Structures are given as structure tokens and as C-alpha cells.
Amino acid sequence: MLTKxxxxxxxxxxxxTVKGINFIDLRDxxxxxxxxxxxxxxxxxxxxxxxxxxxxxxxxxxxxxVRRVAEKVNIPFTVGGGISSVEDVDILxxxxxxxxxxxxxxxxxxxxxxxxxxxxGSQCITVAIDARQVNGEWLVHxxxxxxxxxxxxxxxxxxxxxxxAGEILFTSMNNDGTKAGFANEALAVLSSExxxxxxxxxGAGNMQHFTDVFLKGKADAxxxxxxxxxxxxxxxxxxxxxxxNGIEVRL
Length: 251
Fold this sequence. Notes:
With about 250 residues, this protein is α/β, with parallel strands linked by helices. About 35% of the residues lie in helices and about 30% in strands.
């Protein structure tokens, strides 16, 4: 059985880690390189860095940050934000990133997924999907959740898989920052319909939420930010709790 992964997420704005609620009301959470080093030592399986203003401000994720993180951590990490071409990915991977995450650019030009998978291999390509449940239907949103579309979450996820993505990072905008639990029903549907791993994001507030996301949501990995950044949950304690609940994790 594959072990379940615990992944701290560092949202980056102007070189600092920030955290908000429902994608807004951001507050400072520290230096991303320092946080990355702490997480690597405390038992995190992977890290995700998302430059949350990169797409909006039409600038590229800083390769310098990637290089500094790569020098300090020994666990895999994914970088996303403003990535829209093979060249963007090439720069990030050469500077030390293990995987890249694409979101808005893939929705606008789905062929990008095919191009990246063909060039770098599916194992390097994560497609992030931000979706909000509107009148009972899960709809994809772009540009850090600011731009709604009429694209159905599950149909888009299936297309993403078919085009060669290695995994999907699904963030429920309804749950993000609320600490009320993950969107387990939607996650269970994704996990049942797709063969590639699903990373759950949005809603972590306590250890039970992580147990639920693996047992009820059938997620392959759980991503969280503020509960780790502000030391509300220690990763070592979380993994021990998950193990007690029969969930296989790397200790």
C-alpha cells in the first residue's frame, strides 16, 4: 500500500509566505526558505510553493527562491504560479524544483499539459484545480480563484488526466481557510473516477480532518497551510495519529 502524504503549502506573495481565508485577507506567515527547512526536518513528505500573485500580475515565479529552497531541503517540492510554457518549467526544474504546478494557463490552453508531460514526464506535472460549489455544481475558477468559469470540476479533472498530468491538486474554495474540514464528497468522486493521485487542499483545521480526508475523501495526499505555519498541528503528532487510525504514513 502506498503511504499517504502530508504536504505543507507555502503561498508566496512578494517573497513572503502568506495565508488567507477563502483566498483573501492575507497575513504574513514567515520566510518561505526558513519554513521549508523546518518542515523538511519535522516529517513533511513534500512541499508546495505557490506564487499566488504570479498569474494575476503576469510575472514569473522566482527561480531564485527555488534555488534557495533546493539548497536547504531534502524532500521533493512543487512550484506553481504564472507557469505557462515549456521554458518556464525548464528554468524551475533546472534550479532544483522536483515538480511544477500549472492552473490557469492549462485551462486557457489545455495543450500545455500535453507539451509539458511529453517534454519532462508526467511525474513532474501537477495540475492544480481551484473549484467552488455553486448551486450544487463544482465549477473551476482561475487566477487565484478570482475568475469563475462554467467548466465542471470532474470533467476538467478527467481531461487533465488524459492529457498526461501526473497528479491533481484540488482546492475547494468553499473550504479554503475555514478549518471546517476538506471537501470529502468531491474528493471521493475524483479519487474513484481517476487513476492519478489526488492531493486534497482547503479546510484542514484539526487532526480528525486529515483522518477523514484519507478514509472518506480517499485522497492520496493532504495539503494544508495555516495549521502548520502557526503550529496548531505538529506534523509528527499528526502522522502518529493517522497511524493509530490505520492510515499508512511515513514516520
